[in-house]
Design brief:
The structure is a homodimer. Chain A is of the alpha/beta class. Chain A is built from 19 helices and 16 strands. In chain A, the strands form 4 sheets. In chain A, strands 4-3-9-1-10-11-2-12 form an 8-stranded mixed β-sheet, with helices on both faces. In chain A, strand 15 and strand 16 (465-468) form a beta hairpin. The longest helix of chain A has 32 residues, at 287-318.
Chain lengths: 550, 550
């Protein structure tokens, strides 16, 4: 019997660089279970996020739309009520759409109140959770400071830890993200000098195994009904701290050489300069920071790989592996000191490129297993892929969804025509950098437009940045002001400008509805520009030309 | 005591050309009451609609946003649930926002259902009526054909006519929009050859006086509470037919000379050519059609002016004229045969330019009464104007509202800096023209970008059209392919491209909220990029560095 996709397992890591997996070429970090998925799926080498920051990137994954289209352009910017999300597309197909882990969604409470949507209703919860049924929502950022909690929602994970005997109000921090310090004090994971110390939590109670178990709980409970499970790990995102043995599995010798040049710092573009000056960038520019932190970052990835091995075995055992389409990806990368940068935010490959592996269980995909796709792929391509894999026609949603289905690649039938440019965006208005650069909140935006060779970054109000990925794959030389590259810059700007003028908000009428509507008003009595009755068919006058009523 | 704005009367005509009013220079059509409003207000000479078609234009008036931003790009394209409208901005100020007449709003029923919004609830009605409380909604298009009614809602006006003794199922057509024909048959207003015949309805029962009376009913009932009344006439929109004496008030001798040239037809831009070939264009290109129809078009305008005289007198009597800001405008123009065109749709001045007169009752406006403003003004400027007139700060809504308040012009304090380009758009995908031109629904779009001298029209996928309004004020010569104008075209395209990349969807966070949020996560325990605890203030560690709980 032919295998086909019934369920979707959409696995996302947070801040996982594309090149920190052995299947993407990392020489020291073996990730056999992820590699195994690549071996039976397709591995994409040019997958870009729509924005190199958690919230904005994720809202593009979950809406299938560019950031400029959905508007939730940074962490904490609510996704407006009315934007359709993954769940809105899948539920009509009978697929329950469930979350375990992080989304970084901020609910548009003002919009919900304006529209009278009860936050406690099923619709209200889904609107607030960007379309997911939250089996377990946990953004993994349970910081507390002088002004209170960052995430007002206390996670179920804290209760779990308490139940396992980990004491305190915030065991997320005190056990899972802190080590034993000196003098009977905590060594907080927020201070990176403690990165190599083991977290105080037992490995099996740390965040990655916990979320994996929760995903297994869901799969167990879901039974036979089709589902889409978004398993969204917080790791290897900071705080960079891991439980034993993952804290100690790698050393500075295992870390990839840093990619940066003095030229980058000598006369940098002002926006790049401002980001190089951020605390995280300054920290990661130091060798000791990289030497201590990157090995732990690698350990956290290793732990994910081990947990995925556990999950895949569980699925195999239950017979769901053979009818579940599996995506493995990340919401953006991590500079880790490359280009004198920490964190993400800008558009160098370590930040904007993501690992993307898709396993299609269906028989039609058998011929493409283990293949590699070098086409330009975007985060917004996933929803159309899911729809097509489930037998629906994503073209019918092309008035909303801005990406394209990857299914042809998964089945070895690449389309004759594919996108020639990838777009990413970044809104830095919520960062103090914007004020330092003297840029108004509405103009503090960067655009990336890239083809397979060139990458242009256009900040509003500044000159562009340009990299030649063929001659300079490490992106060390900014050609944004080089007169020799004027033609390339113009070509890429033309593509970006065309993108800016695209249709993105006519979301209430499909292309097909529009085609079908043409010329129809005449048959409902709207007769425009007619001089004499004889110019149009007699039947159109049927209700107009009777005997007059007196 | 200083006068100030308490109420807003927002009068819109439908398809009224900017130059068919005596205050705008029409030599034969005296409109003394509208002129009187201009004499005590400000008359704008470069007011453009955001789209030269009813529905899209109106949704821009009602949302304060460009068509590309709100997405309701043509008649019948629903305005998506969640888009904020005039009423959403005014109600929090204690101003009831009420409709009498036409909006051309199509409710987003699918979106309402998805969000669980009860169409019968107050919120549901407002969402469906683009934010208005519908005192009387009537789009004035009650056509009936073989496929049924164009507007499923039977208007209250039909009941009114029946009550007055006008018989039949659709007295809107049979009495208000038809004349006596030959042989005891109706002469339908849909056939323009009947235009000069008197409509069968008594003048006082025709649409314009009826809607005026309904506005007066509302004002009477409203009492002392502040209001914003959108009085939205269907006329002088087709069917072009008027009751006596307005049917016979003007003759062909009163019609402005036609503006067109043989050059326009000799080698036209393909998009222009396709629109010149529409039935309405072919009809209005004939002298007999103009000679019969335009005098009636003028009569319908004259009737509006007379009715406004009645309304203003009523308001004067009740003392509300002195605290009501009054706008008089239109949703777009009418070619009436100029440029070999009928209807609207394209961007020549007769179509895209509108009359706009604003009377500000406040004492601060006394110095500017009767003045004329030649700046580039857009339909989206009205909501910010209303907000400022009512004492609110439109800048606080600049994350949603894309226009600017006109109040400084009304008060003789023009801002130092004003927009340098006006934008308008047109989506022709719902027209058979799109298929004839071989253009996909998503690409069947036109953009206009104009400054005070040049006007560029850029259809997606075609060469631009360009007019020099200084050298060629009648827009008879398309310079879109003239090599001498390359610089102007590039300059205007640069402006259009910048507009395309503008921020338009980050509507859930104000500029001020964004500024205030900067650097705040640190005080909620998110400490990014810290190596050593000493790098940040000790208080930030308060919840992290206690004695470990065992």
């Amino acid at each position: 019997m032919a295998r086909r996709t019934k369920n979707i397992l959409f696995i996302m890591c947070d801040q996982l660089r594309w090149d920190y997996l052995s299947c993407y070429g990392h020489p020291r970090l073996a990730t056999p279970h992820i590699d195994g998925l690549a071996a039976k799926g397709v591995r994409f080498t040019r997958a870009y996020v729509q924005s190199p920051v958690c919230g904005a990137s994720r809202m593009s994954f979950y809406t299938g739309r560019y950031v400029q289209s959905h508007g939730a352009s940074w962490n904490g910017v609510p996704l407006k009520v009315g934007e359709m999300t993954l769940g809105d597309y899948l539920r009509p197909l009978g697929v329950q759409t469930v979350l375990v882990g992080k989304t970084h969604m901020r609910a548009d409470r003002e919009g919900m109140e304006r529209l009278g949507i009860d936050p406690g209703s099923i619709i209200g919860v889904r609107v607030a959770e960007c379309g997911f049924d939250p089996y377990e929502r946990d953004d993994g950022l349970h910081g507390i400071g002088p002004d209170g909690r960052y995430d007002p929602q206390v996670p179920r994970y804290n209760r779990y830890l308490n139940d396992q005997g980990y004491a305190g109000d915030n065991p997320w921090h005190d056990w899972a993200n802190a080590a034993e310090g000196q003098g009977n004090r905590l060594a907080s994971g927020w201070a990176m000098r403690h990165a190599r110390k083991p977290a105080r939590v037992r490995e099996e109670d740390s965040e990655t195994p916990y979320m994996t178990s929760r995903a297994m709980d869901f799969i167990r409970e879901a039974g036979d009904a089709p589902w889409c499970l978004h398993l969204s790990y917080i790791k290897p995102h900071w705080p960079y701290i891991a439980p034993a043995p993952y804290n100690d599995m790698f050393t500075a010798a295992d870390v990839l050489p840093v990619v940066r040049s003095e030229e980058e710092r000598s006369d940098p573009h002002p926006v790049f300069a401002a980001f190089m000056d951020l605390r995280a960038s300054r920290s990661f520019s130091r060798k000791e920071v990289r030497d201590e932190v990157v090995p732990v970052y690698m350990g956290l990835i290793k732990q994910i790989d081990d947990q995925l091995g556990r999950l895949f075995a569980f699925m195999q055992e239950r017979g769901v592996l053979e009818n579940t389409l599996i995506v493995f990806t990340s919401d953006h990368g991590d500079y880790l000191g490359d280009h004198w940068m920490g964190e993400k935010d800008l558009f160098h490959e370590p930040s904007v490129k993501i690992p993307l592996i898709v396993y299609d269980p269906s028989s039609e995909a058998d011929g493409a297993r283990g293949s590699v796709c070098d086409e330009l792929v975007e985060a917004i391509d996933l929803i159309p892929t899911f729809l097509e894999a489930l037998g629906a026609d994503p073209a019918g949603q092309s008035h909303r969804l801005e990406g394209r289905s990857l299914l042809p690649f998964l089945r070895g039938n690449p389309p004759a025509e594919w996108r020639r440019f990838a777009i990413s965006e970044y809104d830095y208005s919520p960062l103090p950098v914007a004020a330092e650069l003297g840029v108004e909140p509405r103009d503090a935006r960067l655009f990336m437009v890239a083809d397979k060779r060139w990458k242009l970054v256009q900040p509003v109000g500044f000159r562009p940045i340009l990299y030649d990925l063929a001659a300079d794959p490490n992106e060390l030389r900014d050609l944004g002001a080089d007169p020799a590259c004027e033609g390339e810059r113009r070509r890429l700007m033309t593509a970006l400008n065309a993108w800016g003028l695209r249709l993105s908000q006519r979301t209430t009428r499909s292309e097909e509805q529009i085609r079908q509507s043409r010329g129809k008003s005449q048959r409902r009595g709207i007769l425009i520009g007619v001089w004499d009755e004889s110019e149009v068919a007699e039947e159109l006058w049927s209700s107009y030309l009777g005997e007059p009523k007196q």
